[in-house]
Design goal:
Number of helices: 15
Radius of gyration: 26 Å
Oligomer: single chain
Length: 330
């Protein structure tokens, strides 16, 4: 009985290779999490010191005829009379407790202000991302399938224009055409789908160009591989070959860029929200910088940095599910 027990082959779940793969994956995730925390700490530190180079917020908060004694009282109440190092330690201690402080202008906790403005920015970025994927993926596929033809040239011309045009100029042009000349859409405002169209399209123009161009290049490389020729030899149609056999293999670089574009959509919302008076975090950031609202600026900068870090981490982890070769190489 003992010999039979010893000769029993191990199950697949208990093989040493599988346990090693799991350990390596967990160590990789832990390493990326530590790196992400370090990046956020560096971002918070840089934002803390740079924002204080903009000047004294007391000069803005008080009227021009305020006395030196009034300035001193306000500076003490805001904690700005402490040493820079003491303020920095207080700031880090607050971050450990997820306390971003109180706004110097609004007098409210920064977390509450961000919570009020965040839904508008997420809504704008989500619609812009949807517009990006709906337009860029078909455009990239068509351009790759008709490489060198008129359709490909048309798509690449649009890509060139989209990548070389500043978003704020696109927004102003859209306002001029659709709001001023045609009077079909509102130039600003928030709350309806009509208010969302122009800023979402403005925000998506650059991302559409980036994703479509990269998808076209990736598909062109994949379509020249052996397994694609085998699929064609089996009688699959051109579109079926691209969608079923080529698109997944070409998706790794595209997923990376889409992940980066999510961060770019949130960060690029600063200018777009300013142009369309969209009440999101981007508009809030501009207002905070103009008012020298130190805690609010620090929180918004940290929010945008955290968005990039989290999205990049998720994109990196998604590689294992998109390509088994990445999973086995870890």
């Amino acid at each position: 009985m003992s010999a039979l027990t010893l000769d029993k082959p191990p199950t697949r779940a208990d093989t040493p290779t599988r346990r090693t793969d799991r350990t390596g994956l967990l160590l990789g995730v832990a390493k990326r999490l530590l790196t992400a925390l370090f990046v956020l700490l560096c971002t918070a530190t840089v934002a803390f010191f740079l924002v204080r180079l903009s000047g004294d917020p007391v000069k803005i908060l008080l009227p021009p005829d305020a006395t030196a004694e009034q300035e001193q009282v306000l500076r003490h109440s805001l904690g700005l009379d402490q040493s820079l190092f003491s303020q920095y330690l207080d700031y880090l201690w607050g971050l450990l407790h997820l306390d971003f402080g109180d706004s110097l202008v609004y007098g409210q906790p920064v977390s509450e202000i961000l919570a009020d403005r965040l839904p508008a920015t997420i809504e704008l970025a989500a619609v812009a991302l949807a517009v990006t994927l709906v337009i860029a993926i078909p455009a990239g596929i068509v351009a790759a399938m008709r490489r060198g033809r008129g359709t490909d040239n048309t798509v690449m011309t649009g890509v060139l224009l989209g990548q070389s045009t500043p978003p704020f100029w696109v927004g102003i042009l859209l306002i001029l055409v659709f709001a001023v000349w045609l009077r079909a859409l509102p130039a600003s405002g928030y709350g309806t789908f009509a208010n969302l169209v122009l800023p979402a399209v403005t925000l998506a123009v650059y991302s559409v160009a980036v994703v479509a161009r990269l998808l076209r290049s990736s598909l062109i490389d994949v379509l020249s591989s052996d397994h694609i020729r085998s699929a064609r030899a089996k009688g699959f149609g051109p579109l079926q070959v691209v969608v079923r056999h080529g698109l997944r293999n070409a998706s790794l670089p595209v997923v990376t860029v889409v992940g980066l574009e999510v961060g770019n959509l949130l960060g690029g919302a600063i200018l777009t929200e300013r142009v369309f008076s969209w009440p999101g975090v981007g508009q809030l950031t501009v207002e905070a910088i103009s008012n020298r609202d130190f805690p609010l600026v620090q929180a918004t900068v940290l929010f945008f940095a955290a968005t990039f870090v989290v999205v990049n981490l998720l994109v990196d982890l998604s590689y294992s599910f998109l390509d088994p070769r990445v999973r086995t190489s870890r």
